């Protein structure tokens, strides 16, 4: 069994509505994302000797995650305060991306896992919010 990972970087702004510290304020992160795929090697053909072609991982992650989320204000659609900011940004033609949960590293890691799991045989998602803080999400 092999484990391979492809790493990505993208920027988002967010707030954590109701946080008891500085993260209740609008701020941004350069997120680092690792997408891990586990499996055996392909025996024959164009992908021989690979678990998965890194280029194929990149194509899927770009479409499902990076294109909609990079340089967006990511917000919790259940938070009236965050929706108010998103509505203003939308009026100003600025990029937003809503998810129905608080935008913690934990919940975004699980959200990204769920967005990708039907398209890639992923085994784990690791999401860094800062260089010193990350969450790993896996289902087994
Ligand atoms: N378990 C979690 N704790 C916190 C989260 C989170 O998603 N999960 N998020 C935040 C804030 O978003 C905050 O921006 C990050 O906090 P912190 O690591 O304290 O940020 P710093 O910029 O100070 O990071 P350093 O690398 O320590 O400089 C808070 N908590
Ligand atoms: Zn933050």
TrEMBL record:
One GO MF term: 6-carboxytetrahydropterin synthase activity
SUPFAM superfamilies xref list: Tetrahydrobiopterin biosynthesis enzymes-like
Gene3D superfamilies: 6-pyruvoyl tetrahydropterin synthase/QueD
One GO biological process term: tRNA queuosine(34) biosynthetic process
Lineage top rank: taxon: Bacteria
Pathway: Purine metabolism; 7-cyano-7-deazaguanine biosynthesis
Annotated catalytic residues: 23, 71, 129
Keywords for this protein: Lyase, Metal-binding, Queuosine biosynthesis, Zinc
The EC number(s) this enzyme carries: 4.-.-.-
Record flagged with keyword Ribonucleoprotein: no
Reaction(s) catalysed (UniProt annotation): 7,8-dihydroneopterin 3'-triphosphate + H2O = 6-carboxy-5,6,7,8-tetrahydropterin + triphosphate + acetaldehyde + 2 H(+)
Family matches, as InterPro entries: 6-PTP_synth/QueD, 6-PTP_synth/QueD_sf
Pfam families noted in UniProt: PTPS (PF01242)
Requisite cofactors: Zn(2+)
Annotated family: Belongs to the PTPS family. QueD subfamily.
Task performed by this protein: Catalyzes the conversion of 7,8-dihydroneopterin triphosphate (H2NTP) to 6-carboxy-5,6,7,8-tetrahydropterin (CPH4) and acetaldehyde.
The protein, known as: 6-carboxy-5,6,7,8-tetrahydropterin synthase
Lineage, uppermost ranks: Bacteria, Pseudomonadati, Pseudomonadota, Gammaproteobacteria, Pasteurellales
